[in-house]
Amino acid sequence: MAQAVMQALPGIALGSALGIVLAAAARVPFLQGLGSVAQTRLGAELSDVSWPSVLLIAGLGVPTAMAASWLAAHRRVSRSPLQCVTGANSPELARSGARLARRASAVLLAAAIALILLETAYGSSLCGMLAIAAVSTLLVTGSASLVLPAAKLVRSMLARLGSVSASIAADELASAWGRTAVTIAVFVLGIGTATCTATIFRSAEALVLSVLRNHFRGDLVITSAFREQGWLQLPLDADLAAELRQVDGVASVETERLLPLDFRGDAVTVRALDGQTEGSRKGQWLFVDGDPDAADAMLAGKGVLVSRNFTEHFRIGRGQDLDLQGPDGAQTFHVLGVVEDFVSPVGSVTMARRQLAKLARDALANYISLEVRAGHDVSQVAHDIRRRMADRYRLRMLTVRDFLASAQALISQVFHFTRTLTAIVLLIATAALLQSVISGALEHRRILSIMRAIGASRRHLRLTFVVEGATLGVMGGVLGASAGVLLSLLWIPLHLRYLLGWSIPIDWPWATYATGVGLGAAWPVLASLAAAQRLARMPRVADLVSE
């Protein structure tokens, strides 16, 4: 145990320092890109590092190392003196380890299900975090419990081919159960974490673009040059829309007012739309529940659309009625459909502008969207508007197409660092796998030399190593990708919904999953070939007397 502590302390120190450096390095481009998208300046200070989290994670390293060393020592003590002298692995020891892993997996599965049910029932993000921790540990124990069945499957499949080398490889995987289980568990957790992280950030990137496309419609968006709070601009006089309709080249004008109202003790956002541009037609709405024709009915004043998170927070959906209280009156509205909308973490209600008049005497607009007639230049129309309104309004005009293109580039910059994090996690998992393959080769030098002494060729040795490495790689890659899918389904549709208040659609980065599986299958084979080539060239006598 003292040796484990001595080995753990440098790793904890270097790992913590590396984590802080990576966080600080990634935060600067992240906030710069995010500030460019939001048109504001965001600070990036090292003081924002969560030091309690760093200390907690670092503090867990020592007891984890001590527990692992105690378990290893306990298992060694349980072996017979003859096994300790000869280095032979007991099949019963492997079976007992597999049984322990299965029992731990059953307990962790039950705990994860209970915690998920508690999070769903009470909206507890703490239960969600504990559930994810339980599932992550379950991936480790579950992978370990699959080692013996996988070795048996490989042996039975390849026995039909009459391959002695393959049978020896399968036996080695089963006999060295502890090393094999730890290797596959680390690889599964590494690939699962990397692919899950990539999925979360890919989905967040798609979400931000979806929000921008939903808010900026038409060809030209006009807002005030001044900001009210955060990303929200100061409202303009809604009567400005009537003047804009008179500008040559303007085909249609739509105004949008964002107004917070109290609903059952929470602040929801009302989106009031007036007019219609091409971008506000039913094809632009992301319906979760309801007919897309409900968008036309909403614009006609026949009801409202609510966001998905509004439905989840207040249990009010399509076909039901909701009562809204404004500063100047109350009104009951019929819900025509449920849409994806991310303007508020609590929920939003989208209605026609004339419906808002029943709740508040409000003649303001946060956004004015214009559609330009065919044959007219958007920049020329913007120039004419600026010239006509310059003496009365300070306007900010955005060409939607150019804005979305630049925003997409900036958002890619914001999330670019996540690819580095994914690569680092994959590198760690790959290093663990390579270490296992090479150490396994060194552990079995004497056995392989005996094989050569009784007539096995170098080809047989290489095949033995390749089968062993390929089995580890395929198991680690496939189980790791499956773990990434499982963790993503826990994080995005479930946990982030209670943590952030939004239901984020999943956008799967299949290229990352394919890369993880490919690395899992390829690297062990290459490492096995390299180790086999090295051992095959060594003198047989040296290996036979090495012990």
TrEMBL record:
Signal peptide: none annotated. Coiled coil: none annotated. InterPro entries: ABC3_permease_C, Lipoprotein-release_system. It comes from the Bacteria. Its main location: membrane. Keywords: Cell membrane, Membrane, Transmembrane, Transmembrane helix. It is found in: Cell membrane. The keyword Kinase does not apply. It is a multi-pass membrane protein. GO terms for biological process: lipoprotein localization to outer membrane. Belongs to the ABC-4 integral membrane protein family. LolC/E subfamily. This is ABC transporter permease. It comes from Eiseniibacteriota bacterium.
